[in-house]
């Protein structure tokens, strides 16, 4: 079952259960997927690949994380709590996140494979790391770990 079909099915369930937060979040995912679909459409009908669908949901999750950070800094815990609830729903559609240890092990493997020795090699390591860990780890976390490993 594609993500789009899953979204449609779960939207109906959220409507029936009356869970407004879940319903609004699922609607935002659906709208973002449709918007992306229209943007890639050529001639007639455009279909999103699984990777493109994942990118859309990851983008929505990143926006929620940024909003939580901003609302917390702005002393608006009520709004931060709402964004956190939506983020929890979004994370159900993302692949399981790797632990810090798993991310660090993957980065160390990439550093070994590329022969990276200093911060000059950061671009090469980051490119491979982000490709390998796409959707499984936060980009900021990956960047911080790469910097720590290469500067050690």
TrEMBL record:
<dbReference type="InterPro" id="IPR042184">
    <property type="entry name" value="YqeY/Aim41_N"/>
</dbReference>
<dbReference type="GO" id="GO:0016884">
    <property type="term" value="F:carbon-nitrogen ligase activity, with glutamine as amido-N-donor"/>
</dbReference>
<dbReference type="InterPro" id="IPR019004">
    <property type="entry name" value="YqeY/Aim41"/>
</dbReference>
<protein>
    <submittedName>
        <fullName>GatB/Yqey domain protein</fullName>
    </submittedName>
</protein>
<dbReference type="Pfam" id="PF09424">
    <property type="entry name" value="YqeY"/>
</dbReference>
<dbReference type="InterPro" id="IPR023168">
    <property type="entry name" value="GatB_Yqey_C_2"/>
</dbReference>
<dbReference type="InterPro" id="IPR003789">
    <property type="entry name" value="Asn/Gln_tRNA_amidoTrase-B-like"/>
</dbReference>
